[in-house]
Design a protein that fits this description.
Number of helices: 5
Bound molecules: zinc ion
Structural class: alpha+beta
Oligomer: single chain
Order of helices and strands: EEEHHEEEEHEEEHH
Number of domains: 1
Radius of gyration: 17 Å
Length: 168
């Protein structure tokens, strides 16, 4: 989003405020060595399997921005059962899939900006063709779950960006 903001930690000025951040892989994959990755699993932009028994899919954990109305998106990975993973793959090219019941998923990224988020419980809602699944956190008191329920300010997005744009 075109928006001029100044990082409060270092004073650097930016003309663009990113409204999404997405870890490239689930943390268990990121923790593997190159050699382990070559022999133990597969990954692409949306799906990841490790040891034929850990199944991950990438989704959108949306957080409403209150003013101006907009959406901030964490592109996070969740793990699902083998059965649900196979269902997701089977429906991959289907036009209509939002009618599927939500699936259980474990959040598999630590987002850094919050107390640990790895292992939070979620519900995974498939959406119609071409859209990544929507990730809904269990409604707990975890700050990320509170933010998803109640929304965040643009100032909070600046804070998240300042931390997430590590090394800027
Ligand atoms: Zn800074």
């Amino acid at each position: 989003m075109k928006y001029t903001w100044t990082c409060r930690c270092c004073g650097q000025q930016f003309d663009e405020l990113p409204l999404s951040f997405a870890p490239l892989a689930p943390d268990p994959w990121a923790g593997l060595t190159e050699q382990e990755r070559a022999t133990r699993g597969t990954i692409d932009s949306d799906l990841c399997v490790i040891d034929r028994q850990h199944f991950f899919v990438r989704g959108c954990l949306d957080i409403p921005i209150i003013d101006p109305p907009a959406t901030f998106v964490w592109g996070v990975w969740v793990s699902v059962t083998k059965q649900n993973f196979e269902r997701i793959v089977a429906l991959w090219d289907a036009e209509i899939r939002a009618s599927e019941p939500p699936m259980f998923g474990w959040l598999c990224n630590d987002l850094g900006v919050y107390p640990t988020t790895f292992g939070l419980k979620t519900r995974v809602h498939l959406r119609d063709a071409g859209q990544r699944p929507l990730i809904e956190l269990e409604p707990t008191d975890h700050p990320l779950a509170v933010e998803q329920r109640e929304g965040i300010s643009l100032q909070r997005v600046e804070e998240i960006a300042a931390e997430a744009l590590a090394g800027h």
